[in-house]
Amino acid sequence: MSKLGCSSRLMVILGIIVLALFLTSFVMGPLGSKFFNIQVPKNLQVSKPFVQLPSEPIFHIGGFNITNTVIASWVTILVLFLLFFSATRKMKIIPGRMQSFAEVVVEGIYNTIEGVAGEKHVRTFFPLITTIFLYVVTNALLALIPLWGTWGPIAHSAEGTVIIPFLRAANTDINLTLSIAIISFCFIEYLGFSRIGPLKYLDSFFQFSELGKAFGKLFKGDGKSFISGLAFGFINIYVGLLEILSHFIRIVSFTFRLFGNMTAGEILLGVMTFLVAFIAPVPFYGLETLVGFLQAMIFAGLTLVFGVMAVTSHHEEGAEQH
Amino acid sequence: MDAQTMKMLGAGLAGGLGMLGPGIGLGLIGLGAMGALGRNPEARGVILTNMILIGALTEAVGIYALIIAILLAMVV
Question: What's the total number of domains in chain B?
């Protein structure tokens, strides 16, 4: 008995079966039939992958469309709830396995946020950043399970046979990414207005205090620095308007970064499975796992960084601890 | 040229030319990060964190171009 857990004869048989499937799907698929000019029989033909960006509604609740991405996000919420519920029952000082896993996750994220935000502000940021990270990463990872995107009734449309899946990767819905982006934006602006006070927050954009200092110099009789202060004051107003615009553009960039990465990944997996059905999509599944983690980290991390920038006003920058 | 050909041409150009800028940008970020890491290997954590952050911001611009290409080729 080898160390593999089953006999090596079984491994060899499985390896031969997988290799045969790989060669068959290569030769009979779209690549092989073009290279070798084979006429593929009708029941083995695969229809071209059909890209549909808007998500398909499954049922209605009183005029409100429930799409398959909404159902997938419900499954995500259920999975996260069950995970952390089972980890926090009967907590002990020496933790069991589920509790250890939850502690690793929570402590890892807490330490990362503390590294960026400093000890004073961790408690403010921790709930929302962790929620965004865990939600996006669970959405992305669950979407790689075979049930998502493939289980559903078959419909015949103009482009050929199309599957309307019951579950679809939740991150491929622009509505979901837009809603998380709006929540991030509102959180950051609320922090800016409530922590420093609305006047000081607006002042960090436009630097009105600098303009006031320039007028003060005029009353003291220092004409030259008044002119230069006035010029810089007006430039600062223009720069402040651009910064406010960039705050709003963050919503757009958050939305399309997550949506684009996830949709491109879904299309990539679909096209690779269409070309060669076995073995070839495996490295792309690895890539998709990595991209899911990375995009969740980026979404939560960017919200954290922009929030920290909003909380520490521009005059305190020198005293920031890292 | 009919509309379908123009659409395909537009999709290819949007994707290809649009990815040029972010590709160069990401390479420059890597250049800066590797240079800083070489001079100061102890600051590895800070440098890598910031590199990934700015890499994400730059890559998003490439994703915008990809979305336009997908829209042109498959949806419009």
Answer: 1
